[in-house]
Design a protein that fits this description.
The protein is α/β, with parallel strands linked by helices. It has 4 domains: 5-206, P-loop containing nucleotide triphosphate hydrolases (Rossmann fold, 3-Layer(aba) Sandwich), CATH 3.40.50; 217-372 and 560-590, Rossmann fold; 374-432, no CATH class; 455-528, 2-Layer Sandwich (Alpha-Beta Plaits). It has 21 helices and 20 strands. The chain has a 7-stranded parallel β-sheet, with helices on both faces. A 7-stranded parallel β-sheet has the order 10-11-9-12-13-8-14, with helices on both faces. It has a 4-stranded antiparallel β-sheet with strand order 16-17-15-20, with helices on one face. The protein is elongated and about 80 Å long.
Length: 592
């Protein structure tokens, strides 16, 4: 029997699920679907963003709807236009083998009259944003007085966005005897108030613990001086060549500025905030989903409802005002069983906020260092080598080979390899050769280092493709090297290789252990990174995080491919777009 069929779902939904490639229900689906199918009850379901909540309420709703009646029977409220459209599309996909079931999306930025006409034609399910729904109720364009089911999706986000009064007003137009299903990632006081006022003895299910972050997301923080915040962001991007990320800023102004700076510096970036028109937002999101944009810089409000697959990193350029908001930010990555990374760039005065976040999400942060220029050169060089090794040969080049061979015939194989890789290596090396150390010394640092601060950094040729993340690799190294609990530090895992540090006194032992070390028959190579002599708090000669010395480079260096669409560049220096006290005190109207 199909695993979804075992939950009690009918043939039509099971057929759609199989066609969509779903293999097994998620935890929230396993817990919620049987209850909602078999009982007429209210429910409060707490589950991290990205755990499959839409199917958890969507499957039972479709099963319970009378598709032969054209009366509106279900209302789903969601915080943003993007999420509203996403839920609508998913409900349509789930019910594709029930042709008489119609779902209509109701949201701002589109014709309210067209949406009203769609509902009048017969819509058993309405998916709506609170503002537009309330507007339609006030204009008597929709009747929800006889609905059987009301679903509040991402309830905490709707309330954080200021929809408390709208939700109260909308629910007051619904019948008392309906079932209310509330789905939320966190349980702040306002959500509890809604539950107590409009729900009757709800069943509560929790996936994980209340307000916790996803177990698939590792949490890191980097301590820098405020003026180096933007330079640190660029380093983190360059150290992760395959990054596909959302970068969070607190205000619209900072969001636009950071995006403009990234575009000016050659990154595929764009801004997403409340000052963009709906058409601009749609274009940005389309480009991001198609990976034409590699780094999406967004405010918390604008990013609500973003559901894009395979986001590798969330970067907190600034921590949010509300600690609970961090849960939503980090939930954009680490979805569908995949691992993700949430990075936080903080100044020394903000480290206490990290401790507060740890208490809320019940997970520990690892303090890491901003990579040096030498580390970035190594990462980029080996990334290029792996890309070349995996590349499929385009035989259209065959006709050009005689002429190419003639040009290259005087060089040996080793010389050709050196010349080829020197093109890319030299770009990064020249860019970063005088780059300063961006790491600020925090009170938490130093426990992984000897009293004289001597540390050696190693390169090892195993990484994510071998099944490691930073925690499992650190455990493997501790077990293999037998050096003690805190002897291995600064573990940084890439696709096919990694870096780590130990105290320099262990150097001879480590090199000897890995001299002829194999994993499943493959030799594990380890060598000392050229950057191993860098000590904490050290400073190079350069004045900025990218070796620009206060102005744009004359050689036009671009760390990434040409900038994608979605923003515009501007004149700037490279000391960064840091968040200072004046910006932190901006009024809340700028935080959209």
């Amino acid at each position: 029997m199909n695993k979804f069929e075992a939950l009690g779902l009918g043939e039509a939904i099971v057929k759609a699920v199989n066609e969509m490639g779903f293999e097994a229900p998620s935890e929230v689906q396993e817990k919620a679907i049987p209850i909602l199918l078999n009982e007429d009850t209210d429910i409060v379901a707490l589950a991290q963003t990205g755990t499959g909540k839409t199917a958890a309420f969507g499957f039972p709703l479709i099963e319970k709807i009378d598709s032969n009646s054209r009366v509106t029977q279900g209302l789903i409220l969601s915080p943003t236009r993007e999420l509203c459209l996403q839920i609508t599309n998913e409900i349509k996909n789930y019910s594709k083998f029930i042709p008489s079931l119609r779902t209509v999306a109701v949201y701002g930025g589109a014709s309210i009259h067209d949406q009203a006409k769609e509902i009048k034609r017969g819509a058993q399910v309405i998916v709506a944003t609170p503002g537009r729904m309330q507007d339609m109720i006030n204009r008597k364009m929709v009747d929800i007085s006889n609905i059987d089911y009301c679903i509040l999706d991402e309830a905490d986000e709707m309330l954080n966005m200021g929809f408390y009064e709208d939700i109260n007003a909308i629910l007051s137009h619904t019948p008392q005897e309906k079932n209310t299903w509330l789905f939320s990632a966190t349980m702040p006081r306002e959500v509890s108030t809604i539950a107590k006022r409009f729900m009757h003895d709800p069943v509560e299910i929790t996936v994980g613990h209340k307000n916790t972050g996803s177990e698939n997301v590792s949490h890191e923080y980097y301590v820098v001086n405020s003026r180096d915040r933007y330079a640190a962001l660029k380093r983190l991007s360059d150290a992760n060549p395959d990054i596909f990320s959302v970068i969070f800023c607190r205000t619209k102004r900072d969001t636009q500025k950071v995006a403009e700076n990234l575009i000016e510096d050659g990154y595929n970036a764009a801004a997403l905030h409340g000052d963009l028109s709906q058409n601009q937002r749609d274009l940005v999101m389309k480009s991001f989903r198609n990976r034409q944009i590699q780094m999406l810089v967004a405010t918390d409000v604008a990013a609500r409802g973003i559901d894009v697959n395979d986001i590798t990193h969330v970067i907190n350029y600034q921590l949010p005002d509300e600690i609970e908001t961090y849960t939503h930010r980090s939930g954009r990555t680490g979805r569908a069983g995949k691992n993700g990374v949430s990075m936080v760039i903080v100044s020394k005065s903000e480290i206490r906020k990290i401790r507060s976040v740890e208490r809320i999400i019940k997970q520990k942060f690892e303090e890491k260092e901003i990579p040096s220029g030498e580390e970035i050169c190594q990462v980029q060089l080996f990334h290029l080598a792996n890309d070349i090794a995996k590349a499929e040969i385009n035989h259209e080049i065959d006709g050009y080979l005689p002429a190419i061979n003639e040009v290259m015939e005087e060089f040996t194989k080793e010389e050709l390899i050196k010349k080829f890789f020197s093109v890319e290596f030299s770009r990064f090396h020249n860019y970063y050769k005088n780059a300063k150390d961006l790491n600020a010394v925090s009170a938490d640092r130093g426990r992984d280092y000897s009293s004289n601060g001597s540390s050696t950094r190693y390169f090892i040729n195993i990484g994510e493709k071998d099944g490691y993340d930073w925690m499992t690799l650190k455990d493997f190294l501790k077990d293999t090297l037998n050096l003690g609990r805190d002897a291995v530090s600064r573990v940084d895992v890439k696709d096919s290789f990694s870096f780590f540090n130990t105290e320099s006194e262990h150097q001879e032992k480590i090199l000897s252990i890995f001299e002829d070390f194999r994993i499943e028959g493959r030799k594990v190579n380890i060598e000392i990174s050229k950057d191993s002599g860098r000590s904490r708090g050290g400073r190079g000669r350069g004045r900025d995080g990218g070796g620009f010395k206060g102005k744009r480079r004359s050689d036009g260096f671009k760390p990434k491919r040409k900038a994608g669409r979605g923003g515009s560049g501007g004149n700037r220096d490279d000391r960064g777009s840091s968040s200072n006290g004046r910006r932190d005190r901006r009024k809340r109207s700028d935080r959209k």
